[in-house]
Backbone:
């Protein structure tokens, strides 16, 4: 068979065979294959997108978490500070109160002491007065035992307090 | 490196050894001179039997059915009845001279050996000859192979949807994706889905036949994609698809080509003529390109092999010497042909899609 002369038989079989192959593949193979590839491509793309989304979400979450942590820390610091201030205040007031109480106690003690002192002094005065009266009585009784001394005394008192 | 070198040497040695046997047989049955021209042409063209090995009487050939529609009768017999054109069967014989390659009906119905030098009057040539020749047989094998490959791959997609490809699927898928993404979709755009089945079938048909043509032994070896009838039919199908999918702009563009001076259209319609001619030259070039590339590759390879026999005829020693060089060149050409097999399938598909896109009209790839 010559090189550039197409033969009828081959043309016939080629048309028939290629036609049948085309129809079989076009019906049963290519749509399935191309759809299969496209569907898998879509799936892969979807999953990539999903992964991206989850990643972003995770980052967001992480950021939120960090924010929350920072906030909590700040809050804790605030609370601590407040607590410190309050404790200081409490300490101060307690101290003040203690001071005041102490002062009051001292003052009361001083007053009591003063009163006791006054009482003691009064008692002492009374004692001394009684004692001196007693002494004076004894002296008087001694002095006025004889007449001459009485008369002398009367005289003295008369002379001292007469006529003025 | 050393390992690779060793392997290469062993491969070359094996080939030389294999050739030695054929060379011996060739030298042994050396009655007539070895003629490279007919030898090569015989191997790149079609034949009625599938020659496996051997020479002359000892040759092994798979007989293939010859089927004719002659004078209103259907005639069928096996090709071994014709003894490679040396015998006639019921008046049918292989043509010679002008009718070489066809089956002729002799004037007398006789069966038996045809003597050399005797004139046998020819009644007529059998026009309707649908014999299962070597190429038709090869066509069937490749059709079954492609059908099986892609139906089983399709089954895989159905069976394991959205899973990573496996086995044959993994082999075929990257090529399918490549052709889709690099050839079909860029040129056809939104129209791609409609033409994808044809273009993919086209690509894999050409590719598989190119590759099978490179295999020197039985299932391969037929130069199917280097046969003008086959490439012609493929080009014709592309041509018809192009014409049937053409839009108004395509024809307007052809009759009144925009962007050229008016005097090229009126009074002598040079541009319409050129454009109309282009409509036919495009598929013609498709046909010739694939045919010429594949056939030329086969011819070069066969030329290198022929060199061995040509030199072997002078002296067997020279034949052995040349065989080493020939085999190295053969391996080189084989690798080149492997590349060409892919390139030609790619180019045919690419140009087909560009021509179709050009006819549809709204694409840029067509004007490149």
Residues:
């Amino acid at each position: 068979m010559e090189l550039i002369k197409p033969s009828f038989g081959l043309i016939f079989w080629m048309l028939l065979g290629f036609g049948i192959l085309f129809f079989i593949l076009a019906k049963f193979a290519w749509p399935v294959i191309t759809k299969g590839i496209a569907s898998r491509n879509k799936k892969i793309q979807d999953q990539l997108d999903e992964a991206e989304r989850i990643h972003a979400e995770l980052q967001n979450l992480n950021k939120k978490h960090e924010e929350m942590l920072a906030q909590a820390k700040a809050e804790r610091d605030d609370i601590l500070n407040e607590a410190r201030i309050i404790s200081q205040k409490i300490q101060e007031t307690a101290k003040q109160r203690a001071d005041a109480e102490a002062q009051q106690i001292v003052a009361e003690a001083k007053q009591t002491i003063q009163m006791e002192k006054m009482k003691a002094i009064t008692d002492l005065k009374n004692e001394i007065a009684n004692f001196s009266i007693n002494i004076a009585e004894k002296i008087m009784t001694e002095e006025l035992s004889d007449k001459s001394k009485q008369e002398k005394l009367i005289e003295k008192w008369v002379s001292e307090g007469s006529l003025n | 490196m050393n390992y690779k070198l060793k392997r290469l040497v062993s491969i070359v040695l094996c080939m030389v050894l294999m050739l030695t046997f054929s060379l011996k047989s060739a030298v042994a049955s050396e009655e007539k001179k070895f003629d490279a021209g007919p030898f090569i042409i015989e191997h790149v063209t079609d034949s009625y039997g599938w020659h496996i090995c051997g020479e002359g009487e000892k040759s092994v050939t798979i007989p293939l059915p010859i089927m004719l529609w002659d004078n209103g009768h259907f005639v069928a017999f096996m090709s071994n009845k014709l003894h490679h054109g040396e015998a006639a069967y019921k008046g049918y014989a292989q043509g010679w001279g002008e009718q070489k390659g066809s089956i002729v009906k002799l004037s007398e119905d006789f069966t038996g050996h045809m003597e050399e030098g005797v004139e046998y009057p020819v009644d007529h040539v059998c026009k309707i000859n649908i014999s299962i020749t070597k190429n038709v047989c090869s066509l069937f094998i490749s059709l079954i192979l492609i059908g099986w490959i892609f139906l089983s791959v399709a089954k895989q997609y159905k069976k394991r949807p959205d899973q990573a490809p496996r086995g044959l699927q993994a082999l075929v898928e990257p090529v399918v994706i490549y052709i889709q993404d690099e050839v079909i979709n860029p040129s056809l755009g939104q129209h791609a889905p409609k033409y994808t089945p044809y273009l993919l079938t086209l690509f894999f048909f050409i590719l598989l036949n190119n590759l099978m043509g490179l295999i020197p032994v039985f299932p391969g070896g037929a130069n199917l994609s280097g046969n003008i009838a086959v490439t012609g039919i493929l080009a014709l199908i592309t041509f018809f698809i192009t014409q049937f999918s053409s839009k108004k702009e395509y024809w307007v563009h052809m009759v009144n080509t925009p962007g050229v001076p008016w005097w090229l259209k009126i009074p002598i319609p040079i541009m319409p003529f050129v454009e109309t001619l282009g409509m036919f030259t495009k598929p013609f070039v498709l046909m010739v390109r694939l045919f010429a590339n594949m056939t030329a590759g086969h011819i070069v390879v066969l030329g290198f092999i022929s060199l061995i026999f040509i030199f072997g005829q002078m002296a067997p020693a020279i034949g052995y010497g040349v065989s080493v060089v020939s085999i190295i060149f053969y391996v080189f050409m084989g690798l080149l042909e492997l590349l060409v097999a892919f390139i030609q399938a790619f180019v045919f598909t690419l140009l087909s899609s560009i021509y179709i896109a050009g006819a549809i009209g709204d694409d840029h790839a067509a004007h490149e």
User: Anything to note?
Assistant: The helical segments of chain A are 8-143, 147-161.
